[in-house]
Amino acid sequence: MQNYVFVLNADRVPLDQVHPARARELQSKGKAKPIRQYPYVLILQSQVENPKPKQYTLKIDPGSEWTGFAIQCGESIVFRMELKQGGSDRVSNLTLACHPCNQAKGNQDIRDFLAQKHGF
Q1: 34-65 pLDDT per residue, tens
Q2: Which 3 state secondary structure label does DSSP give 93?
Q3: Does any domain span residue 1?
Q4: In what order do the strands lie in the sheet with 66-73?
Q5: What φ, ψ does residue 106 adopt, rounded to 5°?
Q6: pTM value?
């Protein structure tokens, strides 16, 4: 997978991604500046009129412990990352709770939380 840099137009509309060498060139010439470190995003200093960006697809793979995100352009993956999940979002783990109880429960299974708190 090749790394690319996200680029925003001066009005913050997404443009096509660029190769890191092109990103360095834009920055060294003062045509763009970074606005985010991860993922690395540049914003152009002047507006590009009538841009024609490529079509990108966001794909999400919700796993049991990790959720994977990928941005694709055609068959090429241009950005990928994974996030570790804190707790299950299964119906069996959902419960109505006041804010203090919800914070105390955290990512524990509801059975473990109730056994610890109320001796169930």
Answers
A1: 998 878 899 999 999 998 888 878 888 777 66
A2: helix
A3: no
A4: 57-62, 66-73, 76-84
A5: 55, -130
A6: 0.54
